[in-house]
Amino acid sequence: MxxxxxxxxxxxxxxxxLAQQVLAHSGPSFIKWGGQxxxxxxxxxxxxxxxxxxxxxxxxxxxxxxxGLRRRFHRLRDHRLHTKAxxxxxxxxxxxxxxxxxxxxxxxxxxxERSETPLLxxxxxARAAHMRxxxxxxxxxxxxxxxxxxxxxxxVGVSQAEMQLSAEQLEQxxxxxxxxRALAPKNAYVLKLLAKVLYKQQNWEALLELLPExxxxxxxxxxxxxxxxAATLVGLFGKYAEQKNTEKLQTLWKKxxxxxxxxxxxxxxxxxxxxxxxxxxxAEQFITSVHTKTWQAKxxxxxxxxxxxxxxxxxxxxxxxxxxxxxxxxxxxLLARLHRQQKLWGVAKSYYETxxxxxxxxxxxxxxxxxxxxxxETGNAEHCYRLGxxxxxxxxxxxxxxAASQRPKKAAEGTYQPAPTF
Length: 422
Prior knowledge:
Blueprint: H1 2-24, E1 28-33, E2 36-41, H2 42-98, H3 101-110, H4 118-131, H5 135-148, H6 153-166, H7 170-183, H8 188-201, H9 204-216, H10 223-242, H11 246-255, H12 258-261, H13 264-276, H14 280-291, H15 297-303, H16 311-324, H17 329-341, H18 345-358, H19 362-374, H20 378-394, H21 409-415
Antiparallel strand pairs: 1-2
Helix pairs in contact: 2-3, 2-4, 3-4, 4-5, 5-6, 6-7, 6-8, 7-8, 8-9, 8-10, 9-10, 10-13, 13-14, 15-17, 16-17, 17-18, 18-19, 19-20
């Protein structure tokens, strides 16, 4: 403000000094215009020049104001349209959240071109069209979303893949995700979506190729993705197990990342597949090699079901494992089954009884009952059948006590009392 006052003061002083000079040195001035000569005093000429400058300045100011008014009008109109577009976006998102798909799509597309965020408008409208089961309209809106912001190809592609997946358009979702993988090979969410699509397609070979990358990006830690991994192993290994293709099973196992091969569930799937393929010798070798490092309950259970080339050696291994974990019900049941294969009925019976008193198991009850029938102990066999049936229904274990000698059937039935639960 002080600078403006000083500037005006200087202009005033300068004008006053100039006026004094003009008046002090006033004389005739001649202007020739159109063949005529006009005589003016110097003061008059200076006044006319000043008036001409003022008139020119006023004209320029009026022209500037006129054009500025037009620009302001355009700005006001654009502001009004942008405000309307933003209001439509807000209302459209509300309608989308509430499930009014028709109204949401209309509001989101009505002023999308004037919106400050047209990408959000088109993505929301595409979601609404998808919920209306209008895939062609959805894809058209997604195309417009990319045109509105070319840098958002990944975001738009992910949204498209999600909607295709939820609509069970698996082939289209697969193609979309492969394109996204080419654009963003390290995008973890794209990789996760691709795994889900392959899982739904039961494309186990492609999923197996994807497992190392899934493991590398720590995507197998969640429960859902862990289920995807398990289904991949079961589906793929089961496929070649049915074909009795043991070479392919061994090749697939070697292709798995070490972190997956070290998982107990993966070990069991591989060993069970070898057993299903009829390669019990390979399954036996694999289980034995695993148990030299760490004992696995499910592998121990499987060890008792396969056909062994040398039963005495298998029994020796099982006894060694039991020595490391005395009274382990799985190891006891394993020895019961191995001795049953050896037709050592009495020893097998003892192991079955001890195992069931440690941990009741419906299948073990059935196996023991069948064994007792072979041994002619029908009363004990019926007792096992009853305990096994009650356990299947009530899920409560009971103490198993077998009669030392076989009694007449009626007497046994008349004196039987249920054992206490534990």
